[in-house]
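assembly run, all chains below
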Amino acid sequence: MEQQKPALFGKTAAEIREIAAQLGLPAFASGQIVDWLYNKHVDSIDKMSNLSRQARALLSEHFVLGKSAPTSVQVSADGTKKYLYRSGTNRFVEAAYIPDEDRATLCVSSQVGCKMGCLFCMTGKQGFQSQLSAGEILNQISSLPERDKLTNIVYMGMGEPLDNLEEVMRSLEILTAEWGFGMSPRRITVSTIGMIPAMKHFIEHSECHLAISLHSPFHDERRKLMPIENVYPAEEVIEVLRTFDLSRQRRISFEYIMFKDLNDTPRHVKGLTKLLNGLRCRINLIRFHPIPDTPLESSTEQTIQLFREALVKKGIRTTVRASRGQDIFAACGLLSTKELVKVQAPDF
Amino acid sequence: MDNGLTTFLKNLRLETVTLEGKIELGKDVYVIRLARRQSFLPGQVVGLSLGGLPPRLYSIASGPDDPYIELLFNIKPDGLLTPRLASLKPGDALSVSAPFGAFLGDQKPAWWIAAGTGIAPYRAMMRAGLGHNKMLIHGGRTADSFYFENEMLSAFGERYVRCCSQESGPGLYSGRLTSWLKEQPQIDPTLLYYLCGSAEMVVEVRDILISKGVPIEHVMSEIYF
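ok done. output:
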């Protein structure tokens, strides 16, 4: 949200205390502001009715609230909804709301576009436009019409969350703090392609679950799918994970999109078993949802099930993720706002 | 909450080195020369930082036998690091990580495709003697964006294609490198294709190569993260 005044939404309790002090507001006002922002989910400073008129005027003079409702929604036949949120003047991100029997998950975006260029991902095709602020990440949750039904948040929308480490960590702090949204970190999963330094920081400073996009156990094959492998190889990512105590409730999972003849063979089962040996983790198999101009195809249902059974036999907890929202391009790997982005002249 | 940047710095194990030289190659584009502490493989990157700023990764642009390392960068107007890098003087200190990365050149015939400062790893590979059976395709906005042009002309001759999207000039293809690629009647699917540049460039070029029959196994990409 490109605004002259900074946004209050997305600031931590400590930052709000500092702002209140700088504006000469009484000490208790900061607690009230935080409560309006993250508990009552107010959409304007004027509605912070237990603040004095003068306090509200002062806040409005220096800040905007920083929240905005989604600009559109698409509804899938399976109940999944894809919401479009504005970021700045010409940029948009998508969030996918996925209701299920006993849970309702929101898949949030952390960047407009993505720098990672993974071969199978629609977001990667639009390149990178900008980082989302913590407020813009949290706005996808706070301004969601189904906000009160949410049970889980996954950072698996547009962008690589750990390439926007500081804003993502700030959003997690606000999401999990008692003064904030008060969500259990066990209800939140952050997905990464394995940016090692940022991943270490995340593990050290957050109790949320971690999901790692793996997609191949072999260096030479993974680097063709995911250029990040050239810089942070999966083998090193896993070595780093082994240095942490992951025995508590925290869950580490590996996302594995199934590509026909590319990563769905017995050789890959063997490779995964060797790579993940001894690591307490889960593999989540995902059907590939084809994107335009891709040479990749999804593995067959039978292959996916056989692959799962083979991994389970090797002692690796393995699940198959249900495909949701494919008809509205809300399924895994399909989020994109390329058509809505005002693209700058490329440098090539 | 601890600042993520501190951890990042620590993890990259940065060492202080001295700036030995700096050359302005074009508008807002510089190559800096640093004391070399370790050996490296052509195509590898280092993390670079200054005054506690978050390190950024840069491909080494010098050859593995050169007694120094050279890094190519352009000033990002909104960036924290590059404007300060550009103002450094010889003798100033900066922090550099050990070389790492797997975007490595080899002796197999290949096309090296770069946009802007993405030329850096290919210069390292060329200086390592790997350029003899390679085609170099470089895209840039203006005629002065073909960094190390004379060196590349001398090394590659006719195998050096400069695609200039906003200007024309002798020896330049007028248009984006993606247009040049699309115009090629045939692209050899048995060759290897190395891509280095922004995510937009890599994704677009990769799609073109695949549409022309190049198997994904033959495409190697390095994106400026």
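The mean pLDDT of chain A is 93.

The radius of gyration of chain A is 21 Å.

not gonna interpret more than that til we talk
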